[in-house]
Amino acid sequence: MQDVQNLANLVVQEFELNPNFVVWIEHDFSQCEDLSAAAFSLVTFDWYHGQAVNPRWLPIHENWYLDWLQSDNIRISSIHTR
């Protein structure tokens, strides 16, 4: 869990983002061979003194992330940790 907190803190600081407006989506490639909806999670954090703490993973379904990704009001950034 500490790794995901460190990554969130790094991204927010490096790109000077307001964490209240960042949506964190994780795709766990170890769970599937294709882009299965079961492998996607919404990751939320509590922010304490500018630091991400208490990460929580909530499975998201295909309709949710397809609608979100197709939104015209979104800027998508991808960070690969491997």
Would you kindly provide a written description of the structure presented here, covering whatever features stand out?
With 82 residues, the chain is an alpha+beta fold. It is built from 2 helices and 3 strands; from the N terminus they run αβββα. Strands 1-2-3 form a 3-stranded antiparallel sheet, covered by helices on one side. β2 (40-48) and β3 form a beta hairpin. The radius of gyration is 13 Å and the shape is globular. The model has no long low-confidence stretch (mean pLDDT 79).
Contiguous low-pLDDT stretches (5 residues minimum) are: none
Biggest sheet character: 3 strands, antiparallel
What proportion of the residues form beta strands (DSSP E)? 25-35%
Q: Roughly how many Å apart are the termini?
A: 16 Å
Mean pLDDT comes to: 79
Return Rg in Å. 13 Å
Number of helices: 2
Summarize the structure.
Helices cover 27% and strands 27% of the residues.
